[in-house]
Amino acid sequence: MTLEQTVAYKSVSEWVFMEQSNNSINFVDSFLDDFGVQWYQPKEKIVFEFHCHTTCSDGFLSPTKLVERAHQNGKKDLSPLMCKVTYSSFGIEHEETELSWKFLLLSRLILIKLLLLATVTHSSAPSITCNLLSFLKPSCQCYSKAKGIDSSEVCPEQVKVLALTDHDTMYGIPEATEAARRFGIKIIPGVEISTIFYSRGESGLEEPVHILGYYSSCGPTKSAALEKFLGDIREGRFLRAKNIVSKLNKLKLPIRWESVTKIAGKGVAPGRLHIARALLEAGHVENLKQAFSRYLYDGGPAYSTGSEPVAEETVQFIRETGGVSVLAHPWALKNPALIIRRLKDAGLHGIEAYRSDGKLSVYSDLADKHDLLMLGGSDYHGRGGQHESDLGSTNVPVLIVHEFLKVARPIWYNAIRDILQNYLKDPCDSNLQHIVKFGKNNKALKTNTPFISPSELINQCLSLWLSKEERENPEFEAIKLDISRVLNVQRELEANEESK
């Protein structure tokens, strides 16, 4: 890694391993090669998954099973590293061979010794040796044959950070967080919100747009308001699904509403993927892709809209509730340039520009043009098949992750502060639940574990998300003191009630 990548990697690692990090931990090894060039090697390989779904919306795996798959993917043995070596001055490029970076360095060292030996027997050898040494400084890019893994940044061994982004719900996050505790995976509470974009021109463009929202471990600042916002969308999804089923029946493709709701699962708002599965079960299509390409695509013969909010208003709402907003899969849009410009004006933070097949330059260029973050994820649903990208298959470079966290962490810090201050105003159980429900010990609160006080729960939750410096700054210290004081008063009142 370069020095810039090393600094970014260290910063990202400190956040990922927040509970373990202190000044004595080294995240990278450094050494000088035989040319005096500084090399850096990461001690812990990290991969982020920023976009995936569960059975809480239209995925095929439960939150627990999704986390387990993310962990098991990391258990797979990586193929040997492939190294492409280019001696640019000679224009010689070796084809990919299964060589490690250690073997390359050893080869260079042997070459140097042979050249130095030549100086003893040939008078002109010193000048030849110097020229050869200047020529033979290779650039080396290493990557694995495992899908989606590029070790020119950091070779991912397993998913270390997973953002669960179900459609229009955050219901699955507590379960995913609880499962992630067993594997040391960090969960970013997220959501993918269905919206509609309206053109202001005469063309009357109306296009579905999905916005990703990423929140802190304490979730949104206005939890009830966001839940109502998402609940209204889910109600619209039920109406939309019924309209699609009705259109399909008119197209002589009969499917039963009960079949759709059974596939979706109890309490889950049906989406187009659920209807596509119903079409497949009824024998009307050969596969899910055909269901979309023939009937369910945007503007297709069975397509219908729901009661989705306006895209710009959704971006603003994510910001108001302490989230980071990112435009999902812009390559699916008919007019991405216009939509990105308008959403940027509304406060959009970033766009997806990375997929499992690499960075898409047209969208990275749009991100640069509008000063937006770049991100990406697999959009994993768990449906299986060779056409679906697996969890962790999108290689988001460490520099890109670092830029994302530089923007996200101050937003999350302020959100956590606001949530704690709201708890101080009304220290009820529901507000305490709001703080810790996405944290690692939400189960302890549900089971009324007597050994963990609310103050300890809050501290443990914050230790997973805020650095020691952030937790110990005067602002947070004052808040924690106020919380301790409020909780002490509550205990005294409870004790007095019990003694009566």
UniProtKB/TrEMBL annotation:
Pfam families assigned to the protein according to its UniProt record, in alphabetical order: PHP
InterPro entries referenced in this protein's UniProt entry, alphabetically: PHP_dom, PHP_domain, Pol/histidinol_Pase-like
Domain named PHP: residues: 158-199
SUPFAM superfamilies with a match to the protein in the record: PHP domain-like
GO molecular function per UniProt: 5'-3' DNA exonuclease activity; 5'-3' RNA exonuclease activity
Superkingdom: Eukaryota
Protein name: PHP domain-containing protein
Lineage: Eukaryota, Viridiplantae, Streptophyta, Embryophyta, Tracheophyta
